[in-house]
Please model this.
Amino acid sequence: MSKTDELRATFFQESEDLLEQLTDGLDEMSGGEVDPETVNSVFRAVHSIKGGAGAFALDAVVRFAHRFENVLDALRNGELALNGNVLDVMMRSSDHLTVLLEAARDGSGDEEDAAGEPLLAELRALTGEEDDTPAEVDVDFTPMTLALDEFSGPAASELRFSVDFHPNDELYRSGNEAVFLLRELCALGEAEVDCDLSGLPEFDSLDPEQSVLKWHVALQTEASETALREVFEFVEGLCDLTITETAGDGTAELPPLPDLSGQSVTETTASEMEAVDAPAPSAAVNSSAPALSASPAAPDKKVAADSAKAQPVASTIRVDLHRIDRMINLVGELVINQAMLTQAVKRDGISQGSDIDVGLEELRTLTRQIQDSVMAIRAQPVKALFQRMSRIAREAGTDTGKTLRMLTEGASTEIDKTVIEKLADPLTHMIRNAVDHGLENAEDRISVGKSPEGTIRLSAAHLSGRVVIEIADDGAGINREKVRKIAEEKGLIAPDAQLTANDIDNLIFQPGFSTATTLTALSGRGVGMDVVKKSIQSLGGRVSIASDPGKGSTFSIVLPLTLAVLDGMVIEVGGQTVVVPISSIVETMRVPTDQVFQLGKNNAVVRIRGNYVPIVDVGAVMGYRPPVDITGSHVILLVETADGVRAALLIDLIHDQRQVVIKGLEENYGQVPGVAAATILGDGRIALILDPSAIVGSGAGGGAVLSTPIAAE
Amino acid sequence: MTLKVLAIDDSRTMRDLLQVSLSESGFDITLAEDGIDGLDKLDAANPDVVITDINMPRLDGFGVIEAVRAKDAYRATPILVLTTESSPAMKARARDAGATGWIVKPFDDVALASAIRRVSA
Amino acid sequence: MSEMNENDAEDVNELIAFRIAEQDFCFNIMSVREIRGWTPATVIPQAPPYVRGVINLRGAVVPIVDLAARLGLEVPEPNARNVIIITQIDGPIVGLLVDAVSDILSATDKEVQPTPDVAGTGAEFLSGIITREDRMIRLLNLGAILPEKTGAAA
Model:
């Protein structure tokens, strides 16, 4: 990566944070209370984006951010009052800024921002700015590159200038130094500098703070007068400055012009005039004085107060994700190694309570702590994701003409970064779906006595080692009659199938099902809820729906905290050691032989607390051995798959439970049916991690396996 | 002698740009993330030039200038203001607070170095 | 060696030679990551018969291809004397189960003769034949031998 690329990367990274700050602030403002600091922080976010974008010549971003900033500035100064419309425009502007930055980052062009034009007009309308005056923008963003005049430009022929320079006291107090300015001036060409000491008082009456020296410079240069004035840019108004072009041929050196004659080309501002009259600080020039004359205590106190009020800044570092991944892998190895060591010690007959045994136990604890800490590094709050979803909900609302309120809860809930990234697509789809299909339009809502504004609530929470994300709408709920009819029409269910309400609701996750009768631009993009379900499952999670007719639907996603480790039950079946994710196991038991019933030729069910659950012979399904006769020596794992389907997995025995490090099979081999991944056990051998959903599905072979939905419990 | 620059900006991008530009121009640079951080680092950095952003959390650029000027040791230290606003009003306000000069963002290496040269040895 | 006298060193390939079921095979040594003894592999359900399973190679899950089975030769149960050649070509790491590694050869491209056109010899896995003393050494086309990633099919 080149340095510029790196800087660009930093800018886009920072912009993401700033956009988050922006969205946060706007959210807070939408709560009604307008804390000046909130407005400030929103202003700063846009301002910083503009500044950075300028450095990378992202003109569309700069232009838009500039307008946006003006509105925020007006808001900050109290020139503009916050109301629903202003907030709406700002929210949409924030969304648009996100889009612009994404486009700039992906190189999809920082070209004409057609989509932004109407918004720009709205922003302008808020501040009462007439029209986009490109000139003004240009002026604002012209880099200070006038120094280039020294090296290029049409002024190739030499000019002679006479420069008279008399600094005021204020010049020195502002930290400027005549010497540096003169040196810079001389750098423009060949110069002769004379110092006028006539103002120098007697030594005993010398006030070191008083400016008494004057300079006259005769300069022969290719630079323009503008370039000369540029040198004195900082001290404009802090000195008497006369610049006169004397002659073009550069041969005859004219004597310095008297001050008076030069006065005509001098900038004659009021303060300057007074400064000429009274070099000592006078009331009029004192505009710069307060900072200087005020007792040092005043600003100090202010700073102290600010420091006390300010939150301590959490110090952070940015780390390449690859480094963390590598660390996670290494810690995974450490966990395995520690397990192998423990096993070896046990095998060698080292007694419990011995020093080695105790030391190993400590090592185990430490290893687990290191693992947890490393995992925590990758954990991130879902906030940014939620903000993105809020934006998508607003866009969807605009597209469908539905007014809605988006509420988020638990945005600080942390999940593994990888999981968060992979959640974006399914969540986007679900949010769009909730707006498009979940919420009714305003008239329909009013007709059933609801507020015309729909509500979508997105929440996240930790629940017993997993993360639960819910998307709830207060819409019409699932039209079960319609869903059932469609499912029958599409042959997803038999016409006489006995289905609970929950069964019907969950039909929408079936491949090939789509409730939309017309293909809308929003959720009808050929992606159904089955795809959502698949992506959630690929994250080791599951998704389900609960619908209340007339009141709305709630989609629940249950996810593991991380993709890197898994709590597993180590079992044996057909001579193979395999791991079953604990998250899918409801309970384990010896086979209650008197509760096992044959169903058809090759299938059996077991009755557990009154419910018949199909038995899946894992050894046979996995091809480890032929189907066995079910005996009381076998063990049953009652599992519940991501679809809420229950099944009894028939296995030989349970070894133990432990956290295992997930190793992908895809990298060197590929996907294996019925297998989610692999892990390495204490003996160094690989054990496969079962995918209960796939096992249950494949066990269905002839389609005779019955399933018991959760709702039946 | 290498000139020491204390650069205060809350934008990481700007800090990176300043770091690259200034170190290439041979300055010894200390970076600070906001006004308070800048003042905290002031004595350790003992800068020949201070460059500060205006819009910053906790303590803005005007506050920085006033606080720096209030310290005897830094009464004459050149302070350059980094600003996207090149409006005369903004410049006047910065100067009132005690700023020595300003650098309009986006800056380039030449402009930045030239601005620093105009205020320091 | 005589090859080194010829002034076209870039044509010379280093090859690893090994035996499976009394036959000699070889392939370019550049594809070899390491050679290790046989360790029992974990069986993979519904894998092709020539995939023995997967082993743990310092934390990586590596599939083992039984070359004898792949080439249609006699397949004895592997034992501790068997050798696994760990290979990597364009990404996936795959272990090849062979009877024993016999030699490292140098051969120029010119020395490689085309595979005789005999049906049913597993010739699709060979890219040529090299003669060394009185032995015929089959040059394996590794790309054809390695299992296709099943991920795409699944």
Remarks:
- The first strand of chain C starts at residue 12 and ends at 20.
